[in-house]
Amino acid sequence: MIEAGLAIVLATDFNPGSSPVSSIPFMMSLACLQMAVTPAEALTAATINAAYSLGLGSEIGSLEAGKHADFLIHEFSDYRELAYFVAAPLRPRVFVGGKDAAA
Predict the structure, then answer these.
(1) CB of 68 closer than 8 Å to CB of 60
(2) Helix, coil or strand: residue 82
(3) Which residues make Cβ contacts (< 8 Å) with residue 86, sequence separation at least 6?
């Protein structure tokens, strides 16, 4: 689909009956390992492409002026580590509406 120019979307579809996985990093890792998706493609699929699939791409899904700012800051040196350290405990800083949730 990517080679054909289609935008893919990654999500968890968390559902205790058929899909008991709630981890976006796991889904990104699975896409990279099993579907030959690059880490950049996986991150795009889980953020801006997912937002557009819901009709919300102009409001969420990327860090841009005027968009709602819910985001995480991870202690990685490279964005590709998000899919690489799939089983490591993640302790990101959480921001909701542009404000640090811990503050």
Answers:
(1) yes
(2) helix
(3) 23, 25, 26, 28, 29
* DSSP letters spanning 7-75: PP------BTTTB----HHHHHHHHHHHS---HHHHHHHHTHHHHHHTT-TTTSSS--TTS---EEE--
- Given pLDDT bands bounded at 50, 70 and 90, which one contains residue 10? very high
Q: What is the pTM of this model?
A: 0.85
DSSP 78: S
- The reported pLDDT for the residue numbered 13 is 85
What are the boundaries of each domain within the chain?
Answer: 24-100
